[in-house]
Amino acid sequence: MKKKILISSFDLAVGGVERSLIGLLQTIDYDKYDVDLMLFKHEGEFFSLLPSGPNLLAENPHYSTFRKSIKQIIKEGHYQIGISRLLAKTLSSFQGQIKKIDEPGYLNIQYGWEMSHPFLPKLHKEYDVAIGFLWPHHFIGGKVNAKKRIGWIHTDYSNIFVNRKLETRMWNKVDQIVAVSEDCSKTFLRFFPKFKEKTTVIENILSPEIIYEQAFREEPAEIKKSSGKTILVTVGRLSHAKGMDQAIKACRELLKKGYDIEWYVIGYGPLEHDLQNLINELNLKGRFFLLGKKINPYPYIKACDIYVQPSRYEGKAVTVREAQILRKPVVITNFPTARSQALDEYDALITPMNIEGIVAGVQRVIDDQQLREQLVFNVSKNLYGNEKEIEKLYQLIES
After folding, report:
1. How far is C-alpha 385 from the geometric centre of its chain's CA atoms?
2. Which of 224, 235, 300, 340 is a plausible cystine mate for 319, CB 3.0–4.6 Å?
3. What are phi and psi of 345, to 5 degrees?
C-alpha cells in the first residue's frame, strides 16, 4: 500500500526554493508514494512546471492570506488573521529598530504565524508523512494529522534574526529537520544544538539534462554581445541578503578601471526601487540592468561570460550550481556557506564579501585567461547532477 505524503509550501513564484521544490516534485517516485501538494496560494511563474504526479489540493482562503496584504486580508473578512498580522508587523518593526536588525522580515513572518495560528483550520486527512518545504513550519507542526513531520531549512541562521524561544517550540513539533547544505546545517545547530540527532542534509535536487534543455530554448534579446565586452549575470532576489547593492557599486568601480562590462540581474524583490535609484545615481544606465522576473533564467546564464553571486548570506545558492552546470566561470562572495558551494580556484573564485572583493574577483577572472579556462574546464568535467539525493528523503520517510 502506498504511503500518503503531504508536501506544503507557499506558492510557485520565481525563486530558488520554488525551483528546488519543482526539482523534488519531478523526481519523486509516484508509483511508490501517494503525494498531496498544498500550496497556500495557487500562483507563481513556475506553476506551469508542476509535474502531473502530485495531487494539488484546493486553495484554502485562510492560508492564502499569507500571500496577501493586511488591507486585503481585512477586506476579505479575515479579521482575526488581519489583526494578528498587523500586531506581528508592529512588534517585529519595533524590535528591529531597537536591536538594529538589518532584515526584520523573518521576525515578522515568525510572529505572523505564531499569532495567526489559532485562527487557521486543520486538515482532516491523515498522512504518513507531512513535509514543510518552506519555513516556518507551524502548518505541518500543528494543523496536519501526520505520523511523521519533516521540515526544510533553506537559509543560513547566522544571518537572520528570529525569536529563539518561539523557534525552538516550532522545531520541537517536527520529527526530522532537513538542511540543504552541510554549512546550513552547522549554522542551524550552532543556535539549536538540541536538534542535532534529528537534523540531516539533503541537497537541492538538480537535473543537468533539464537545465541544458531550458538553456537552449531561446536567446535573451536584452543581451547584445560584442568583441571586447564582458557580460556578467546574477540571478537572485532583490533583497539585502543577495548583495545587489554591492554588485552595483562594484560595477561602477570596474568601469572606472577601464573594464568594458555589462551586468544583468534576473530577479525581483522589495529593494527593486532602491536599487534602480542607485543605478541612476551612479550613472550606470546602459551598464547595469535589472531585468525582473524570468521563468527561465538559464538562457541568460548561458549567454554570460562570468556568473557572479554577490550575496551576504545563502543557505544554498541553487543558481551557483546551475551556472557551474552550464560551464561558466563563477565568482562568489565568501558568505558563511560559500565553502559548501564551491572549492576556491577550482570550480569558482571565492572573494571577500565586500565591494572591493567583488571588484578584485571579477577583475582577476577577466584578466587571467589561464584561471578562467581552468575554472571552465573543472566545471565541465564535474557531474553536478544529484538526483540520487531523493534516496535520502525516502530513507527519512520509511524510517
Report:
1. 18
2. 235
3. 65, 10
What are φ and ψ of residue 290, in 5° steps?
-100, 110
Residue 116, amino acid? S
Contacts 24+ apart (CB under 8 A), 288-293: 288/247, 288/248, 288/251, 288/262, 288/263, 289/222, 289/262, 289/263, 289/264, 289/265, 290/238, 290/265, 291/222, 291/264, 291/265, 291/266, 292/266, 292/267, 292/268, 293/14, 293/45, 293/266, 293/267, 293/268
Q: What is the pLDDT of residue 317?
A: 81
CA distance 208 to 171: 33
Q: Given this chain, do its domains 3-60+121-205+388-398 and 209-381 carry the same CATH topology?
A: yes
CATH superfamily label, 3-60+121-205+388-398:
Glycogen Phosphorylase B; (3.40.50.2000)
**What is the DSSP annotation of 11-41?**
---SSHHHHHHHHHHHHS-TTTEEEEEEESS
Q: How deeply is 212 buried, as exposed, middle or buried, from its count of CB atoms within 10 A (0-12, 13-18, 19+)?
A: middle
- Assess contact for 372 and 364: CB atoms under 8 A: no
- Cell numbers at 323, concatenated: 551556472
Enter the CATH code of domain 209-381: 3.40.50.2000
Q: What is the pLDDT of residues 230-280, one digit of tens each?
A: 999 999 999 998 999 999 999 999 999 999 999 999 999 999 999 999 999
Domains in the chain: boundaries = 3-60+121-205+388-398, 209-381
pTM over 0.70: yes
d(CA 330, CA 232): 10
Cβ neighbors of 193 (< 8 A, separation 6 or more) are none
